[in-house]
Amino acid sequence: MPASSETRTDAPIPGVQLGVKPWRKVAGTVVSRALVPAWVFAGATFKLVERDPALLPVPARSVIAEVGSAIGANLPSFLMFSMRTIIGIEFAAVAVMVLFPKWSRMVAVAILTLFLGVLIAVLVQGLESNGIAGLLGDCGCFGSKGPPAPVMFLIDAALLAAVVAFPVTLPAHWKKIEYRMGVITAVVAIAGVMVAYSAPPKTFVPTPVEPGNGEAATPGGSDGTTVVKGPWEAPPPPLEPYYFDKFETWVGKSLASQAIALQISRPLPAGFPDGRWHLVLYRADCDHCHELLENHFSGELETPVLAIEIPDTDPAAALEMPCVDCALAKLPAGPSYVITTPVLLTVVDGTVICACENVDDLDRLNECLDAK
Q1: What is the DSSP string of 166-216?
Q2: According to the model, what pLDDT value does residue 214 have?
């Protein structure tokens, strides 16, 4: 006689492995339908609370910049939309893993593999930029307070191994628990997606920027008063919550047409931006920035240099400025600067003629250093 529903121990699920040991049944369900969703949900929640696009991994920001530039989108708006979409996808993945046993394992494998790929890119980039110390950087996976990238990699790798090792089954006596858990998860996930797309950008309190030493470095070493032509004569425009740009798109355009440039602290060097200038955007605690300034701008300057500090750094980790003759300026504290430093710009008579965002690309770096 066929077994009655009362005598069955498992409810068959299409596409899900049956006939495994009881402890593996529990392990597979817990991993793919509880641990991984909880892990993804926690990361999405932290990112949603902070809503800071600067915390997105650098490889993800690079892809967003490339896509946004290709379609002609406003990059800051496109970045915020992309961050909201990433958060929304993570919440949706959580709902799928909990609600649909047939797909839970597949979705868990896909999202953990994607996470590991991004983390590998983060680790490689950190190693190339700052050596071993660069491996300890934060990937932004859990906001600003998340564990270092290597720890995230080990956790994601362990979860992926567990998902692959243990098939998903559904013990019959879990039916009521699963139904309640599914309803709660669906409600929370839908709410998370809605909040991800509707929550306003995180507010910030602008901090008045200290003047730079622009009057101390003038073209040709002349000693004159600070007279700056163009829009820098007027007060800077109101600050935005965050700044994000692909500096390659500045080439051929007026420096004064760029929102970031208009926030450079005053006073600026006498005569700026007339003539030929190098602009270096740097962070005080950035080893790569220090290396660029020391290797190319630490001696006598043939071309005047304006070094612009991005302020979102730890003052205790600040490195000594190697460029003695550089004119120094700052961007105002408060906004989030979604900028990977250092950036080298060559400007002639106010027009950007070359931009180098990857100073490890020596051909491009030398092209900008020599650009006329």
Answers
A1: S----BGGGHHHHHHHHHHHHHHHHHHHHHHHHSPPPP---BPPPP--GGG
A2: 54
Topology of domain 214-370 in CATH is: Glutaredoxin (3.40.30)
- Rounded Cα gap, residues 345 and 343, in angstroms: 7
Q: What letter would DSSP give residue 25?
A: H
* Beta carbons within 8 Å of 349's beta carbon, 6+ residues apart: 273, 274, 275
Using CA atoms, how far residue 173 sits from 10, 11, 26, 169, in Å, is: 8, 9, 12, 12
What is the CA 311 to chain-centroid distance, rounded?
A: 17
All structural domains of the chain with their residue ranges? 22-198, 214-370
Q: Predicted confidence band at 224 (pLDDT cuts at 50, 70, 90)?
A: very low
For 232-244, give the DSSP string.
GGSPPPPPPSEEE
Structural contact between residues 234 and 264, judged by C-beta atoms closer than 8 angstroms: no
Residues 34, 181: Cα–Cα separation, whole Å: 10
Q: Which residues pair with 340 in a beta bridge?
A: none
- How far from 312 is each of 111, 127, 138, 340, CA to CA, in Å? 31, 21, 14, 12
Nearby residues of 201 by Cβ (< 8 Å), 6 or more positions away = 51, 80, 241, 242
Cβ neighbours of 324 (radius 10 Å): 11
For residues 78 and 339, what is the distance between their CA atoms, to the nearest angstrom?
15
Report DSSP letters for 61-126, one per residue.
HHHHHHHHHHTT--HHHHHHHHHHHHHHHHHHHHHHHHH-HHHHHHHHHHHHHHHHHHHHHHHHHH
**Residue pLDDT, tens place only, 157-193:** 999 999 998 887 765 555 555 666 666 666 777 777 7
Residue labelled with tokens 């013990």: 171
Look up the pTM and report it: 0.73
Q: Within 13 Å, how many C-alpha atoms sit on residue 270's CB side?
A: 12
